[in-house]
Amino acid sequence: MASIIDENQNCHPLDKVAKQIEGAFDKLVQLVLSRKISLLTELNDYRNEYDKFTADMLQTEKNLEVMKQKTADTLQTINISEIEEKLHKLTLSTTSFELDFQINSHIIEQEISKLGKIIKASELIVPNYSVMKMPVVAVGKEGSGRDEFDGPRGIAYEEGSGLIFVSDNSSIKIFTSSGEFVNDFGSNELVNPWGIALNESYIYVSDRNQCSVLKYQRFNYKFLMKTGQEGSGKGEFHFPMQIAVRTDGCLFIPENKNSRISILDSELNFERFISHESVIKPVDIKFAKDKMFVLCYNIPEKVHQFNFTGDYLKCVIAYGGGATLFFCLDVANNILISNWTTNTILIYNQAGVLVCTIGKVGHGKGEFSRPYGIVTTSNARLIVSSNNNNYGLQIF
């Protein structure tokens, strides 16, 4: 694995993190190789046992057939029933073994899949923010056309396809990672789409003006259902912002005006609230392992940390650097905040230390006019949306 940090550069705050990732990856490779040998040995044992069962069955069937072909006088002196009983038992044993093998094969396949995901995760690269001065892609001029922006907000990134989903006024627009317009959807149902969350089957969108959450089919963008209205009751929202979907399909919706987080299941049924004295005007939520990070649009703006049951853990960042409505976590759990007062992207480590800034006010490449949605990718890219009349979507 290539070193992330150039040895010729001065020591960077992320050097230590990079070394930790490389060391952890090396250990993981050894564990995977060890498990590979174990799985292959186990599979070979299954193969030998299965072959033995099969050979015994074939031989017994041949013996039985030979005996049945003998003369009637000979058959009277031979106990065929014993052979038939043996064959019956072998058949049952083989059937049981095949079922057991199928179950264990499925378990092994699941384990291999998990190992693959672990390896893929370990190959994620920490972005080198110090070199992010100019975007590699800058697209999306101001306008109301399908491939133009009239107020881009939330962003979601699909790792497998590299597609970028951007909430714009009255629709969700989709671009490739090279900036090419692909499609849009939701114009018949959406008024002011804000947050976007993806899982394997569905796309969820929060609409701030309608105080609702909408659900779409993942593969064809078909509208499926909608829930919510303005209010403070169960299943009601007041300014739902950037939403997040957990691995179990549950949706977490920060309500800015209600100062709480609503949790829905994958079918948009209300489950419960998370309320805490520290959660004041929440606007964005992100997950990292078993932790939940909540950005609150208050003075000073803060990022709080909770566990999934809603227990408050700590305040990670408290800063007075200006208004912000979106943030994200990179693979090293550094916290990136899009600040639309200073028109910059702020990068903090989890100790709350500012380690880098990106951008400045303006309408050119590498400049922002109110940056909003922000996301990092597995190939160390940074994607930002902003009310920039030249480039509403920039990829660094």
From TrEMBL:
GO terms for molecular function: ubiquitin protein ligase activity; zinc ion binding. GO terms for biological process: proteasome-mediated ubiquitin-dependent protein catabolic process; protein polyubiquitination. NHL repeats lie at residues 139-178. Keywords: Coiled coil, Repeat. Residues 43-70 form a coiled coil. InterPro entries: 6-blade_b-propeller_TolB-like, NHL_repeat, TRIM-NHL_E3_ligases. Transmembrane segments: none annotated. This is PEP-CTERM domain protein.
